[in-house]
Amino acid sequence: MTFEEQAAELTQLEATAKRRGISEREFERILVDVAVQIEGSARPSSPEEMLAEIRRRIMPPRTKNPPRSEPGG
């Protein structure tokens, strides 16, 4: 992943956070928390992993599809 791709992804994540009602200050806190978490990790981390963790923190948890009712009953 190039630096430009990383920057574009981060910009998209910021826009998503805004749409979800996450303030700029909260988004910055997420960035700092992720950076601290990765810095303290025993294993090296890629930019992709960092972006994935940011995405996980701003996206709603995925819900399972509700069970479908069977026809005729």
Helix content: 55-70%
Record field, number of beta strands? 0
In DSSP terms, counting alpha (H) and pi (I) runs of 4 or more, how many helices? 3
Shape: globular
- Element string (H = helix, E = strand): HHH
Q: For the record, give the distance between the C-alpha atoms at the N and C termini, rounded to a whole number.
A: 51 Å
The overall pLDDT average reads 86
Short description:
The chain is mainly α and 73 residues long.
Characterization of this structure:
The protein is mostly helical. It has helices at about 5-20, 25-40, 45-60. The model has no long low-confidence stretch (mean pLDDT about 85). Helix 1 (about 5-20) packs parallel to helix 3 and helix 2 crosses helix 3. The chain starts with a helix and ends in a 15-residue tail after the last helix. It is globular.
List keywords for this structure.
73 residues, mainly alpha, 3 helices, 0% strand, globular
Draw up the topology in text.
Blueprint (H helix, E strand, L loop, with lengths): L2 H17 L4 H16 L7 H12 L15
Helix pairs in contact: 1-3, 2-3
